[in-house]
Design brief:
This protein has helices spanning 34-44, 49-60, 64-80, and strands at 7-12, 15-20, 31-32. By secondary structure, it is of the alpha+beta class. Strands 1-2-3 form a 3-stranded antiparallel beta sheet. The longest helix is centred in the C-terminal third of the chain and has 17 residues, at 64-80.
Length: 85
């Protein structure tokens, strides 16, 4: 799983915003919090969901089970927006 190369995460006025460098036409603005930013950065490297969950759990000092649904939800959002290849 990997973020498509034409999508980038940029910080604008203190907010993390997904932008398209290829002029892609998608509806709305996707903003992400620090947790989603962590997931995004892992996806940029091609990490799989289990690796993301494990790394995020370690980073946040929580159990993988407690964050699994949130990771799934964010990845599903990116899939629906056709941002992941």
């Amino acid at each position: 799983m990997k973020i498509k190369p034409e999508y980038k995460l940029r910080e604008v006025s203190g907010m993390n915003i997904v932008v398209s460098t290829a002029g892609m036409d998608f509806q709305g603005i996707i903003t992400v919090n620090e947790t989603a930013k962590f997931i995004w950065r892992m996806l940029e490297k091609g990490a799989e969901k289990d690796e993301i969950i494990s790394s995020l759990a370690k980073e946040c000092n929580v159990t993988a089970e407690s964050i699994s649904a949130d990771v799934d939800e964010f990845i599903t959002t990116l899939e629906r927006a056709d941002i992941i290849e």
